[in-house]
Amino acid sequence: MIFLTEPLSGPSCIRINQSAIRPRHQQEIAIQKDHKSVYDKVGHHLNEHYFIPMTATILKQYSNQLLHDLNRSYFSPLSYHDQILALKQAKKVVSIQRKIKKHHLILRVTDKGYNFYIGTEKEFDKKVQNFFQDTNAFIELKENPFNKIQDNVIHLLNQIRAKKFILQWQCNKMIPNRIKCQLAHLYFNPKTYKDGIPVRPIENTIHAPTTNISNYLDEIIRPIFDKECQNTTIIDGSSLIQALHQYMRKGLFKSTTLFCTFDIRNLYTMLPQEGALNILVEFLNVHGYTKVKGIPLETIRLLASIVLKENVFVYGKKMYQQVLGGAMGSSFTLALANIFMWKWQKELVRRQDMIGEYYGRYIDDVFMTWNKSENELKKIIENANTWHPNIKLEYKIGKSLPFLDVLLTNINSTLSTSVYHKPAAEPYVVQGIH
């Protein structure tokens, strides 16, 4: 079931800042942590893109001002009323924690939303086990392979550096930090907008041995995809509306025009690893690349391969290796999934282009227009469902369909658009969360 902070008929609850009632030493630790996080990101961005040295006076001034602002934010006293509210809510949180522990419940943020899901541990674990069985993408390991994985990653980087396939600074950027390195951790978010409330796997890979390689591959390859595939890429609901206005200006939008949306089930998890690597090299070749940032394509493939195949994570008290697809939570997985779909969708894009219809994709969600019979469109989509054993589609056809955050409706050849709220989404929009 779904747990909301307030009934739908009343206002949403915005939690009072609980940090204000913590002991001062805890607040000081939080300030230092926030300061380091923000300063490191800003400093590295300015250093990398604008060549501002980390020792520059302006960065020192920024650091001091940031620390001053954080101190003011944390230590500004709450009003008496807000202090009472914060204390009451803190007690309520402790009470909820006790009940969750007593009744063996779990509390999770929902997928694609900011609601909460609450259910029994047993019920949720059953959903997780169903996911493992349905995808068949993971194998349980008996021994901890962490040291071996870390050694494999470092050995590969040193090897291709010795052969001069990458530069020293590139090697340094991708090498894992032995002190901070650890296995990824898997968790699941419930898809409350889907029948039966299945789960989506998310890996926390921030300190995994392959994370730096994944980040660098994403940094150099994603811009290529964005440039070469912009005509079939939907960025957000607004960009889809703009594309449909262009479609209308061609005189193709009629009272009989149908919309079709479909999504690919578990795209990240179901990517065939070898097939995706082959398509990555093909994509770069087709668009005229023999090297990317000086790195040969075969080396790019090696780096991408180790990101996919050395993906081991902890879930509960067990360790698993992913043998199909890539980690949702690893930055390069999205770029690789997009490139795989570039190949998969070619026939659909070609057909749509031939008859002047629109085709656009947002990761694993596709939107199409259609001016022939609905049965013919169904046959095309059902045929597309057979193109690859791992890629399965769930589609809808109609004159009024939601896509992302937009509801699109064909009213006698006039396009009507409105904001779409998923039934499982929070019914309120707030300016800030405290």
UniProtKB/TrEMBL annotation:
Top-level lineage group: Eukaryota
Domain Reverse transcriptase: from-to ranges: 170-415
InterPro entries, alphabetized: RT_dom
PANTHER family reported for this sequence: REVERSE TRANSCRIPTASE (PTHR21301), REVERSE TRANSCRIPTASE DOMAIN-CONTAINING PROTEIN (PTHR21301:SF10)
Protein name: Reverse transcriptase domain-containing protein
Origin organism lineage: Eukaryota, Metazoa, Spiralia, Gnathifera, Rotifera
